[in-house]
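Re: that chain you flagged

S.,

Sorry for the slow reply, it's been a week of failed gels. I finally had a moment to sit down with the sequence you sent. For the record, here it is as I used it:
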Amino acid sequence: MEKGKISALQMLLMLYPTIIATGILSVPSITARYAHNDFWFSPIIASVVGFMTVYIAVQLQKAYPEQTVTEYSTKIIGRIPGKMFGLLLLFFYTESTGDITRMYSMFISNSFLPQTPEIVIIATMVLVCAFCVYGGLEVIGRVGQIIFPLFVLPIVMLAIFLTPDFKPYNILPMFEKGVLPSLKGAITPAGWFAEFFMMTFLLPYLADQKKGMKNGMLSVIGVMITLVVVNLIVLFVLGTMTANKVFPLMNVARYANIAGFFENLETFVMGVWIAGVFLKTTVFFYVATLSTAQWLNLSDYRPIIWPLAILIVIFAFWGVPSSMEMTHYNVTGFPFYSIFVQFIVPLFLLIIATLKNKLKKK
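Prediction finished late last night. Pasting the structure tokens below so you have them in one place:
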């Protein structure tokens, strides 16, 4: 179905911005509500889910090469249960694409374009992503190569420019109430780390599949380090006020000022964040399209791109009533939903596949 090929490095450069794009803005405040000044440690705990998810995806791929989870799930648990899981996957990724687009539109509308109808912001983003998905996996891989350095640069610049405003004592006292608050705070970022299961839709199209595990693990390490660094930057500047901010990184960016020349960096951060959200929306859109086409046993996924784009716009515009509901869903609903679909069920698939292979050998 997909004729293009990407390298394992391109997969890494695609996955890193895809996971981190929405996480760096909202995760610090969510984790700070539970972990308080120890919220910098929560991504380290949550990364365990990412490492295990990559391992599960690669091991399933080794057992069923050149197939995605939508295809080999029917071979592991049977046709009807496999089709039901495939339906759950395509619904999850389609709905998630709509949620990502809605989060993007609400932030843009509230911060920069208050007079522009949100449906216009949503439709234009989905339209651009649809063209990218139509170009195929190779086009998405090249977009990831372009966006990756642009995405890392603002974080490095913030760390340098905000150094005079750092208050390292904000990190104290460390683990005053033990590790339990950090464990509670790790639940939300664990939902983001579970998104590494999207690898299963990319691994069959790697030109160098032996490097899939290595580059997947490196991507998890990169996301973990980035979230820890961002959390520390926010903690050193805002301290206990982090939990009261919706997007604390954007608030911190306003503090950056070097000799009165480099200032108002939140606009620069915003521009790069839009590029990251574009890549994340595109990857989710591609996975939703590919899984839907495979679930329907189509020979090509391109004919369903535009109908699916309309469905994503509907999910984005009517799926979430308000920004408060979106924040509540990101805290109480999405982490458990994401971990169940992309970690727990695939783990059971791997266990069943392993037992089946042992029985066959006996």
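What I noticed first: The two ends are 35 Å apart (CA to CA).

Talk soon,
D.
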